Fold each of these.
Amino acid sequence: MSAEDFSILLLTLRVAAVSTLLILPLGIGAAWLLSRWKGRGKVSVETFLSLPLVLPPTAVGLVLLEMLRRSGPVGRLLDRAGVEILFTWKAVVLATAVMSFPLLVRPARAALEEVDPRLIAIGRSLGRGGLDVFARVTLPLAWRGILAGTLLAFSRAFGEFGATILVAGNIPGRTQTLALAIFHRTQIGRDASAFRLVALTVVVAFAAVWTTEILQRRRSRRTGP
Amino acid sequence: MIELDFRLPLAPFTLNVSARLEGSSVAVLGPSGSGKTSLLEVIAGLRRGAVGRVALGGQVFLDSESGKFLRPEERRIGYVPQDSLLFPHLDAAENVRFGLKRGASEKTFAEAVSILEITSLLSRYPATLSGGERQRVALARAVATEPRLLLLDEPLAAVDVELKERILPYLLRVRDEKKIPFLYVTHNAGEAGVLAREALLLQEGRVRAIGRVEEVLRPAALSSADPDASFENVFAGMLEPIEPAGSTAYLRISDESRLLVPGPIGVVAGGRAAFGVSPDDVLVSTKALERSSVSARNVSPGEVIGLEPLGADTLARIFAEGVEWRANLTAAAVADLELSIGKRVWIAVKTHAFRRLR
């Protein structure tokens, strides 16, 4: 592995980690709300949140690009605040976060739905507040599902391409992740070095998905501690 | 004092409860689906949607008029559901400690553990505990929070008779030693008679009867309201061992009366105990019975004070040995014996028909 390969791997791991950490509280919050929401509109909200799973990544990227450009609704505000996002590593984080969000929410919601609401009620009756019960009962009982979702989201962020290239470009050393570098190297005929990056991607992705599978199996088997 | 005056729409009917409960121990009876659990959940604050007023000892939990709703964690109510609902990811000790306030003394924990005798269970997880053990841990968990009121939702329904006999004493210790008042949901009139001083009878969401336990638990009223109700005879008193080996003992239930009951080994003279005997095990005779002519050791003259239909049978209420007995008789037996209120009869109960409750 060359120094350049290592630097690309490091950048990719960093943006995938930041993106995952960014969506973690939001994703758990959304999953919890969806798991408790019984009213109308739930299916519509779930469908909307799942759209990045089925839309072409480039379509999501284009929407983000329109929102973030200086004349766009979000870009105007960011410009006023002096924050620059487009074509920086922050854009990579944002694109990967949007694309991986549903992969965190869906398993986390399923895990939270499995927590018996009466256990939560008992926790409240024992004098613990809602947040305290969430931290001490709900999260520990749902952690495997949440962790599985987190690893899936990380894997998605790690390999994201379509949305990233539209909002962050393909700038070596700044926004070029493994997926973008593989594309770039095959375009310029550096197939051998592209395959080195493919191998790196496979190792990281395999480890993440394998861990997810193991955790899911344990969750379904669990009856005790 | 518990003040209840609320309405809660449920699927088949509206739970409509208006009651003032004074006692330290209240039995809540009624058929399955009559709203008993919902009543407890409204008091605990676990069920939203109730309209009206709920207060305990002057503290208002719910007042729809002023829009007040005290959150469950602020009510200091200990709730023990039928299936224990221990936290599966915590061992018994962590379950009991769950509700302890920050800075709570170790004494609070130790006391709950000691009363419920769960020291040996503390390191075990709920999945490895038996039904009775889980109930004791759940009780300890609720007691350790030093609640102002305990809500017990059929805590003995899921356990067998033997375990029931073991858990009842713990409930009595919680009531008598910790001085924690409770509402106790049960179908068993005998249990209610031992544990409760007041009773509330619910039917299809409405209060059918409320008052002193012996008034509400009258068989005719209870059996028509709650088909699942049982009418065990329950007697409490002082034990007087009569054999060193402890195979039998006297249970003194008044200055004049005592019953011969099984004497568990280790009975201490003067110790309090309660025994139950099924109405099916009380034999009734219109001819004088002598101890020398029957094997039953408890033989007494008495008087029929009530004959109440109980399904196809009749529950005869007989006053003997200074207390009321209930005997379950077939219609044919009532006809053949020509039983009527005021008639003199004899009752006979075998020593081994008594089972110890505490």
Note: The longest strand of chain B covers residues 298-310.
Amino acid sequence: MTEREYNECVNHYADNVYRFILKNLRHEEDARDVVQGSFEKMWVNRLQIDNEKCKSYLFTVAYHQMIDHIRKNKRISLKEDFGENERGAVKQHSNAKRILDEALSKLSETQRSLVMLKDYEGYNYAEIGQITGLNESQVKVYLHRARLQLRAYIVKPENVI
Amino acid sequence: MNIDRHNYETIFLLYVDNELSATDRKTVEQFVQENADLKPELELLLDSTLPVEGFSYGSTEQLYRNEIELDNLQEQLLMHLDNELDNSSKKEIERQIGSENNVKKEWQLWQQTKLDADEQIIFNDKKSLYRHERSHVISMRTWRMIAAAAILLIGLFTGVSILKKDNSTETSTARNQPTSQGNKRQVAGKNESVAANNTAASSNNSTEQHIAASKAVKEKDENNPPTAIAPDRNNITTDNKDNDNNIVVDKKENNNKPVIDKTSLENINKQGSNNSNTATVLNNKRNEVVSPERAHNEIAVVPVREKVTAPTSPIIDYNSIPPMPDSYAKTASVNEGSPENNNKIVYMNEETVSRSKVGGIFRKVKRVIERNANINTGKGVKIAGFEIALK
């Protein structure tokens, strides 16, 4: 990967990675730190990276850095405290979307990551498995369980209206 | 069970709720018959209970579900939602969604769990992510440009000095050699360069004419003290006022000094063009008789390596000598290879001296600089291309 290819990768995928991390962490500054750390690692290892695989490499690094960040800071147990940041970063456009985001926040970070990698980035089970370090069957089972939880939250009587 | 008029209310409630055994119920019914005034109270309690009504759901087939089939459908719908089905399975599930309402409702419900991929969250600080490899180009700031110019100038003058020295060594035509004939006149100076003379002369006169005069001298009187015509290198420059090209030593002032006649001149020219060891005279357009002092300053180079053959003819007037076709003598040199050259004066044209093109460029640059700056070279001490004037 050349310097030009790296900077093109920044232009193409910085927003995607930021969305992926911000939706998981729900904290802007932490998400920026993870994104910058991910690109920094990609820059350092650019000579070993194939430009065709730069996106999956970037998401892999970002996912693992995010997991490390969560485990280190235990942000997941304090997620209610980030309500202001979340509202500032993610604008709610509709009630259905708000309910879905709430349902998404109830998932574990692994399930949430699987759903976002599938729906936002369009990766297949095998690619998601490479990024998250799971095998294809695990991805399939975890993803379906996550869908069932989302569905159960959406069809709750208080969320139907 | 004992029932009497004190505890009959509790037992009547248990009777209505059908919580008593069959024997106890018979006991309660016998007690009511023995106490007829309590029978309306029991009937009132029995009327407070809801009547048992028969309800029929009708067809219950729609309620039956095959648990395995339902899971398979959900999985197919989820796989379809994740776009992981092959084409045949995809067409089949789409057909079911279109044809069966319950499948369609399930599909719509699953679709609500899918995130919107068009949602945009912009990372505003992309500039912090850009990286650039270190460039090997060094920016030229003012002091760096000055330093580079100084280095170039020093290198230029050093190169000129070296080339000049080399040329003077290569083209040296005159050397002051001690001879056994101490009373003979020698027209030579050690380590003198014809090129240097030409350069000095041209620069001082600011003209395009070159001093190309040379002469052959003959020692007439051995008793006369030797006079070296060839000047020192630092005294080669000519007077600006006297921009003469050809020099002839005046007989009146140099009675015992060599003279040149036509025949010897012709011989000298022929031999000089062939790099012979005979002195040659190269005339320019104008000829002039000058004093030895002037000649001393104006002669470019008069190297002497041998005794010059004395011409037999008397002093001639060089004004009557027609200019030679190639009168621009530029360089003279000594052929030191042959032992026959000893004690002979040799003049060579510049074309016969090997010079590099780079050296010629440097000489031209030097001349231009000296002309423009009106620099009188040759009057000072030169160190590394710089000349210090001596007064």
Note: Residues 27 and 159 of chain A are 25 Å apart (CA to CA).
